[in-house]
What does this fold into?
Amino acid sequence: MAELNNLIDTAKEKGSFPTLLKAAGILGLLDKYRKEGPYTVFAPVESAFDPIPDEVIDESFEDREYLSGIINYHIVKGKYTTEDLRNLDTLETVSGNSLKITASDGIKVDTARIIEADIDCSNGVIHAIDEILVP
It folds into this structure.
């Protein structure tokens, strides 16, 4: 069986999360999420950013405090598979906010649908979601 990669390298290999990875790089989080864990990352796929004008994304990248709040709202300490999520109503993010979990007709995190679940990593799990989560 192949050895699992960490959260960052797995996300890079998937190729579905370039804007999220760029934000993590700007915030200096790449090493942390390569080494520490376990974490569950609700990772917006690239198409989740399509409705947002490029200049708004660029402004977000320049405001590190705002960007940090957004990124940290997508990350939870611990490893939660979809099987675990089905039995939960909320999860606390690393920013201290709560995410609402609903498990009817698939699993939703706040208003975002998990569109690719249980991407296993050496230090956690990634769930690809179809929207950006906003605290």
Observations:
- The chain has six helices and seven strands.
